[in-house]
């Protein structure tokens, strides 16, 4: 019988449903120093500006961020002495390594695995640089095998938590017996630019916190040997939105990382994101209404509101992300992994369909389709051929968009970030 031609898009979808991977454990890690938003604002205002109008604007922005507390890698009163990129980056390497080690040890313990069980290690950060990268330094420190496959990543920014899961999934489809580890470390407080009165810096100084996360994922063959009720990663989707390179990112210079942050982030989401989310779901016979668990990167109030508008969701549908934003702020790539860890700890009904997603520089979007199995073994809401089964359940999306405090009085930028 002659082969039937299928266009590239159809071939891609066929490959994507060929195998699944299983998330076994997700462990968040936070520095010990925790402060109320008001304390952080009071400490940062004199570092960033001496102009009363800019100071008042900064206070309004911070209060509108919906962030209640943040964890910092240093005591708050020591940031005034952090006066060079070299000192900041040295601290990123030392303190970031400690935080990553704690997250990895916790994740492996939750999974019932040892460091020597790890076959593939993907490390991501966008708040510091090192060569050898932090993951290389952690191999000997934690007792991993010297033949562990490593893939350090820099530059994906806030999207890297979702992108990291997607790339781990890609690897495990070809290595179904392997154990993979995704590690994110983001020490955002080390990037705040002193004396920079730009709206972008004022916004960022009130939104980002420090944190790390580690996620253990196994191939489908290895999952059969583990008693886990963690979600399966069924499929992923990546997207770069054209002509958005200047919307979000870093300008890197002598003082380190200076944030690039445009007021256009919510518009990019509202105009583009729904098509990718709906496209990923429809490839598996699903609709937005079939998704019972949304795991969104808590980029900021306007970002979460834009996701809700694009998907026609209510604020309650993204409640875990709103709670994470209030509790720890935006942790860049680690944020969506914290929401994932919270979701797994809270428990999800067997058979539920979920979607995890984030946005980052590019502007880039990454989406991961999840399903929780019907039991500790196999099964779930999506059949092997990718079609939705009768067991697929999910809370119906509402037509109301999420709302949150804004900073309209200082312009459209408000509290936006990816």
Descriptors:
Peroxisomal Thiolase, Chain A, domain 1; globular; 12 helices; 2 domains; two-stranded antiparallel sheet; 13 strands; disordered N terminus; 35% helix; alpha+beta; 418 residues; 9-stranded mixed sheet; single chain
In summary, what is this structure?
The chain has 418 residues and is of the alpha+beta class. It contains 12 helices and 13 strands. It has helices spanning 8-16, 37-48, 52-63, 85-111, 134-142, 160-174, 199-205, 220-223, 265-282, 301-311, 319-328, 335-346, and strands at 21-29, 33-36, 69-72, 120-125, 149-154, 179-187, 210-219, 232-240, 248-253, 256-261, 291-296, 353-360, 364-371.
Number of E-state strands: 13
* Poorly predicted residue ranges: 1-18, 376-415
What's the helix-strand series? HEEHHEHEHEHEHEHEEEHEHHHEE
At the first level of CATH, the class of the largest domain is Alpha Beta
User: What is the fourth-level CATH superfamily of the largest domain?
Assistant: Thiolase/Chalcone synthase
Radius of gyration, whole Å: 21 Å
| Name of the CATH architecture of the largest domain | 3-Layer(aba) Sandwich
Give the strand line-up of the largest sheet. 5-4-6-7-1-8-13-12-11
Overall form = globular
Number of continuous helical runs: 12
- Could you tell me the strand content as a percent range? 15-25%
- State mean pLDDT (0 to 100 scale): 85
Structural class: alpha+beta
Written account of the structure:
The chain is α+β, with helices and mostly antiparallel strands. It folds into 2 domains: 21-223, 3-Layer(aba) Sandwich (Peroxisomal Thiolase, Chain A, domain 1), CATH 3.40.47.10; 229-406, Thiolase/Chalcone synthase (Peroxisomal Thiolase, Chain A, domain 1), CATH 3.40.47.10. The chain contains 12 helices and 13 strands. The strands form 3 sheets. It has a 9-stranded mixed β-sheet, with helices on both faces. Strands 2-3 form a two-stranded antiparallel sheet. The protein has a two-stranded antiparallel ribbon with strand order 9-10. The chain starts with 7 loop residues before the first helix and ends in a 47-residue tail after the last strand. Residues 1-18 and 376-415 have low confidence and may be disordered.
């Amino acid at each position: 019988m002659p082969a039937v031609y299928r266009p590239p898009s159809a071939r891609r979808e066929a490959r994507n449903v060929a195998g699944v991977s299983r998330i076994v454990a997700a462990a968040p890690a936070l520095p010990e120093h925790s402060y109320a938003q008001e304390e952080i604002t009071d400490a940062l205002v004199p570092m960033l500006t001496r102009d009363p109008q800019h100071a008042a604007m900064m206070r309004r922005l911070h209060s509108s961020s919906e962030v209640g507390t943040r964890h910092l890698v240093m005591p708050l009163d020591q940031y005034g002495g952090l006066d060079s990129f070299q000192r900041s980056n040295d601290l990123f390497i030392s303190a970031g390594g400690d935080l990553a080690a704690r997250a990895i040890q916790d994740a492996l313990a939750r999974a019932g695995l040892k460091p020597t069980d790890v076959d593939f290690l993907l490390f991501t950060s966008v708040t510091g640089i090192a060569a050898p990268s932090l993951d290389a330094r952690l191999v000997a420190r934690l007792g991993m095998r010297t033949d562990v496959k490593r893939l350090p990543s820099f530059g994906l920014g806030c999207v890297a938590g979702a992108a990291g899961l997607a790339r781990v999934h890609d690897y495990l489809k070809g290595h179904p017996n392997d154990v993979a580890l995704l590690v994110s470390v983001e020490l955002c407080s080390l990037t705040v630019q002193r004396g920079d009165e730009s709206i972008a810096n004022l916004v960022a100084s009130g939104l980002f916190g420090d944190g790390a996360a580690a996620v253990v994922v196994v191939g489908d063959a290895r999952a059969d040997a583990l008693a886990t009720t963690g979600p399966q990663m069924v499929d992923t989707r990546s997207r770069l939105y054209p002509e958005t390179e200047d919307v979000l990112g870093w300008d890197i210079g002598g003082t380190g990382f200076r944030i690039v942050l445009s007021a256009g982030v919510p518009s990019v989401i509202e105009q583009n994101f729904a098509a990718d989310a709906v496209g990923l779901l429809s490839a598996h016979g699903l609709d937005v209404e079939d998704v019972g668990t949304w795991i969104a990167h808590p980029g900021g109030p306007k970002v979460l509101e834009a996701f809700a508008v694009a998907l026609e969701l209510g604020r309650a549908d993204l409640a875990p992300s709103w709670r994470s934003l209030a509790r720890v702020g935006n942790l860049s790539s680690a944020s969506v992994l914290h929401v994932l860890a919270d979701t797994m700890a809270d428990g999800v009904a067997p058979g539920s369909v979920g979607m995890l997603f984030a946005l980052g520089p590019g502007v880039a979007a990454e989406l991961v389709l999840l399903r929780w199995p019907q039991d500790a073994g196999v099964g779930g809401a999506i059949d092997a051929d990718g079609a939705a089964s009768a067991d697929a359940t999910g809370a119906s999306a509402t037509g109301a968009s999420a709302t949150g405090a804004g900073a309209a009085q200082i312009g459209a930028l408000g509290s936006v970030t990816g």
